[in-house]
Design brief:
Distance between the termini: 18 Å
Radius of gyration: 17 Å
Number of strands: 6
Order of helices and strands: HEEHEHHHEEE
């Protein structure tokens, strides 16, 4: 991942660096390009994902996104499918939930809308349980002031 790209030249340098790293780390990989998306500011990054568990089938994972999910590993996991109310309970169960409520003067997140998104993702995973390894909405951002939610890194695997 490359951040802070502000020009075409920087984009080309980042592209070449990503392809070089891929060739070094996985020389047999069949790389067809890179994902480029607008870098966002504000709001709270959240991670939503689906994993396939051999015993439970599809399970949803939720946590704060970005460095929080990588370093703190503060996530909630639940078998799919589930209702928006169950999704809200899942969201509120993470240790970092206070950040979603607007810690230190930040705008609160629309937890109801976030729960709705997570529930819909879980239902989609339950309906397609035989297909694909998982889904990932790596950086769902919610900000209730702007009523904005975007998924700059959404993938189906």
């Amino acid at each position: 991942m490359k951040l802070g790209i502000e020009s075409r030249d920087q984009a080309m340098q980042a592209y070449n660096a990503i392809l070089a790293a891929a060739a070094e780390k996985a020389p047999k990989a069949d790389v067809h390009g890179v994902l480029v998306s607008r870098q966002l500011g504000g709001g709270v990054e959240c991670f939503m994902g689906i994993k396939r568990d051999p015993s439970f089938g599809p399970v949803a994972v939720f946590g704060l996104g970005g460095i929080y999910v990588e370093i703190l590993n503060d996530v909630a996991i639940r078998p799919c499918p589930f209702t928006p109310a169950e999704a809200r309970s899942m969201i509120e169960s993470i240790k970092g939930a206070s950040i979603l409520y607007g810690a230190r003067g930040q705008s609160p997140v629309d937890i109801g809308a976030l729960a709705e998104m997570l529930s819909k993702l879980s239902c989609c995973a339950a309906r397609t349980r035989k297909r694909g390894a998982g889904r990932s909405l790596k950086s769902a951002r919610r900000n209730s002031r702007e009523h904005e939610h975007v998924h700059p890194d959404a993938r189906t695997l």
